[in-house]
Amino acid sequence: MKSSFCCNCSGSLGFGCLVQPRLGSTAFPPTKRKEQTDPDLFSTNRGQLSRGRNPEPRPAEASHHSQALATARARPEAGSLSRIRRLSSSLPATFRTCLSGRRKHTYGDGNHSCSSLYMASGQLSRAEALACSGCRHACHVMLYCDTNTLLFGSIPIRHIVLMQMRFDGLLGFPGGFVNLSEESLEAGLGRELLEELGVAFQILEEDHVDSCFAPASSPASSTSPRLITHFYTKKMEEGQIRAVETAAVTTATDHGQEVLGMVRVPLHSTKGGGGLASFLSHSFVGNARFQLLHTLLRLHLVAPEELREALARSLKIQARASEELRAALARVEGKTNLPHHSPAHTG
Ligand SMILES: O=c1[nH]cnc2c1ncn2[C@@H]1O[C@H](COP(=O)(O)OP(=O)(O)O)[C@@H](O)[C@H]1O
């Protein structure tokens, strides 16, 4: 069942995408990023610096933090920090902590060589992350573009954001493990992208957004050494994004194996509450959902108000899905005479 999977426009997973392979492998040169970012949102709420080349990140971070706070206090309506705080106060607790970056993850066993780099948020500057020789490193990238396309002729799609359905049924960004003894972070990411997307990319250090310890709940981080995930964003032209999607199903060696298909993240919301809300209720690998949420805000691809609404809807969708799954399980157990579901049977 190659390439027949898709994420439909309501954000639900389904079948019926028409894939029309046309192009062969493509190479994309590096692009200098000139994204409109929101430093208040990104730095102060995550308590970290986004571009990790500052040799002394902590003092800079502290000064940036207090500057942004001062701005937000002086001009509360203009400061995105206060806007986010106001919005997040009405969010469900899980997502509130997610957006504020105050969630206390358990990172590492304290024995690895970079335990001194531990931060409550799990965030590291690039320099700190690279200093952790005992850690494993993985790099992933969000490829995106602007678009004028209208869904059903009326709903602006605004931006195309690419993710992928992985072999394990989880959503994630393209990328993978990097071997720092043989390659740089960016070279390793380029190698992974060639395998997964069938396109030769040159990802630059300027494309780096952040680095952090993978949550302890990640399968790959349950064993030592700990995993550090590095996240990148790359803005492209719409035609380039379309070429990536085509190459991903025609020339990429991983297609149908490690990668089951590329998906576009629906950023719109339909009247029935579909779109972004449905998409966010799916299962993501590691901290990919967090990376997506944060990047959507940081790059102003979705307004905080819209995101808050989508997240609240997403929780309701998840609750409904849990009920459906429980009912389905009960039916399957009834038909197959399986013992009834209990924690002892789930392993
Ligand atoms: O999109 C993502 N965001 C954050 N972490 C991810 C993402 N995709 C995978 N990971 C984490 O990074 C690890 C390595 O990534 P991946 O499975 O893509 O590597 P591979 O393609 O080299 O096997 C995964 O086991 C997972 O914990």
Automatic annotation (TrEMBL):
<dbReference type="GO" id="GO:0005654">
    <property type="term" value="C:nucleoplasm"/>
</dbReference>
<dbReference type="GO" id="GO:0006402">
    <property type="term" value="P:mRNA catabolic process"/>
</dbReference>
<feature type="compositionally biased region" description="Basic and acidic residues">
    <location>
        <begin position="53"/>
        <end position="64"/>
    </location>
</feature>
<protein>
    <recommendedName>
        <fullName>U8 snoRNA-decapping enzyme</fullName>
        <ecNumber>3.6.1.64</ecNumber>
    </recommendedName>
</protein>
<dbReference type="GO" id="GO:0140933">
    <property type="term" value="F:5'-(N(7)-methylguanosine 5'-triphospho)-[mRNA] hydrolase activity"/>
</dbReference>
<dbReference type="InterPro" id="IPR054754">
    <property type="entry name" value="NudT16"/>
</dbReference>
<dbReference type="GO" id="GO:1990003">
    <property type="term" value="F:IDP phosphatase activity"/>
</dbReference>
<dbReference type="GO" id="GO:1990174">
    <property type="term" value="F:phosphodiesterase decapping endonuclease activity"/>
</dbReference>
<dbReference type="GO" id="GO:0030515">
    <property type="term" value="F:snoRNA binding"/>
</dbReference>
<feature type="domain" description="Nudix hydrolase">
    <location>
        <begin position="134"/>
        <end position="289"/>
    </location>
</feature>
<dbReference type="Pfam" id="PF22327">
    <property type="entry name" value="Nudt16-like"/>
</dbReference>
<keyword id="KW-0694">RNA-binding</keyword>
<keyword id="KW-0539">Nucleus</keyword>
<comment type="similarity">
    <text>Belongs to the Nudix hydrolase family. NUDT16 subfamily.</text>
</comment>
<feature type="region of interest" description="Disordered">
    <location>
        <begin position="27"/>
        <end position="81"/>
    </location>
</feature>
<dbReference type="GO" id="GO:0005730">
    <property type="term" value="C:nucleolus"/>
</dbReference>
<keyword id="KW-0546">Nucleotide metabolism</keyword>
<dbReference type="GO" id="GO:0016077">
    <property type="term" value="P:sno(s)RNA catabolic process"/>
</dbReference>
<dbReference type="InterPro" id="IPR015797">
    <property type="entry name" value="NUDIX_hydrolase-like_dom_sf"/>
</dbReference>
<dbReference type="GO" id="GO:0009117">
    <property type="term" value="P:nucleotide metabolic process"/>
</dbReference>
<dbReference type="InterPro" id="IPR000086">
    <property type="entry name" value="NUDIX_hydrolase_dom"/>
</dbReference>
